[in-house]
Amino acid sequence: MQIKRRDFLKSAAGLAALSLLGKSGAAQSSRAGAARIEIMLEEKIGTVSPHLYGHFVEHLGGVVYDGIWVGEKSKVRNYNGMRADLVDALKRIKAPNARYPGGCFADSYNWRDGVGERSRRPTRTNFWNNDPAMKQKPNSPGRYEPNTFGTNEFVKFTELIGAKPYLAANLRGLGANDFYEWVEYCNAPAGMASNSRLRATGELGSKEPFGVEYWGVGNEAWGCGGDFKPEEYAAEFRRFTSSVPAYGLPMKFIASGANGDDYNWTRGFFSASAEKGLWVFDRMWGWAVHHYSWNASGGRTWDWVKGKSDAVNFDNEQYYNLLQEANKMDNLLREHWRIMGEYDRAHKTKFVVDEWGSWHSAGTEIGDNYLLSQQLTIRDALVSGLTLDTFIRHADKVSMGNAAQLVNCLHSLFLAYEDKFTVTPNYHVFEMHLPHMNAAAVRSEFFAEPIAYSRNSQPSTLVGLAGAASVSGKTLTLTVSNPHITEAHEAEINLRGAKVASGTARVLSGDIHAHNTFENPTAVRPRDEKFEVKTPLRFRFAPASVTRLQFNLI
Ligand code: AHR
How far apart are alpha carbons 56 and 414 in whole angstroms? Predict the structure, then answer.
């Protein structure tokens, strides 16, 4: 069942009041069975790259226009035309990078349309104009692209938030030389090439180079990015990355990786690349795997529309089913990695999971014309917690992650409409993860009774507790998700290799449907709790929660 925007705005306050109760309203109970979390402080996995916490900005629905860009003359507080509340919030979570301009849009985009004086930029048909949902959205900003926001505006946005720009090239529609010239536009020294002179023109023109290091070579080349076969795309990747002008920068090329568990795509690409020569992996910094958690049907269907659930009005089974989808990330990384290593023995190429998150049914759009806009609840916060912890547990394999997408679209951290703005539960998970950035991921094991539930009338289980740990100096950070809807789970925490002097706890939990609205932007927010240091260490993880524990080590 779909819910209208007005209705879910109204329902938020009630849901918030239920936040410490089970769905039935009964007080939460604790799970039977002793859970144990073991943390091996001496067993380092790798450094947690801040880039795991990256973002994604596509010219799609309300992401760019209204989400980020309101214009310099807007009544909405802005910096150089960018929504100030959004910029300020992204600075608070130390946004490390943002990917742009797509997504599928990237492979229909000519960067030249978005540079120079704004009044002279052309209007083009947006890639998303073809989407069936656009029939209901005649006035959507996503139908025709005015190019008001282009490369200069995006780079300015990344500068304002303190992030690195990650640009995705058009491989389907433009040639390799157009890509080289975009690189030239962004990175050639001031005044030295026609394109660097062009860079200095227009409203946010810049004489100085932008220094863009991260370059996606197409997007979803198996689908909207050209419908290639893996070996065909492998040839395109080599062609596009041959002799790209570097201007002294350590260029990082990211190849379009697999859709979820499409292991044939990974094998096809890697085997074709290795056949040409192992040097290909020297210039391939990232393998961009995409994984959306969309199917809440428990396998009843894999129909792209019917398999989804409502963003707010989902039932308990749909909740657990969706979290099972999110939790597939662990196995996806292991399997793709195993295949990549058969060809790239030295594992020079690491993962860039540059699209991940929840994708729900239409019906909770923040703006009527925002394509793929949806509400985000505690369920989505759990998707974030499970996914980010998986990245940390694979810190040796994952170099970058990008939640799809930043604002007003799919798994957003923010919702914005005209002068209204709120963070979503996802934002809080990113904020809670801050201490992991640049810390050393250490091995952790979670022993907890799995959650038993009925999936499509068959008995099924979901992980009881999941999480990740990292160490920075004398601080250990442990993040843990408890997916159980009504039951808290107490766990003993064993630290191997250190003792604890003191600890703190920060908890994001609530009714699984709870969400923030413009009227009630704090309905879902984390709370700080006392952590009492005793032997053994114990903590009671709230139902449907993401928790961060921090320990000062002796
Ligand atoms: O994030 C929405 C779309 O999902 C992206 O444009 C595309 O890459 C993916 O299929």
Answer: 12
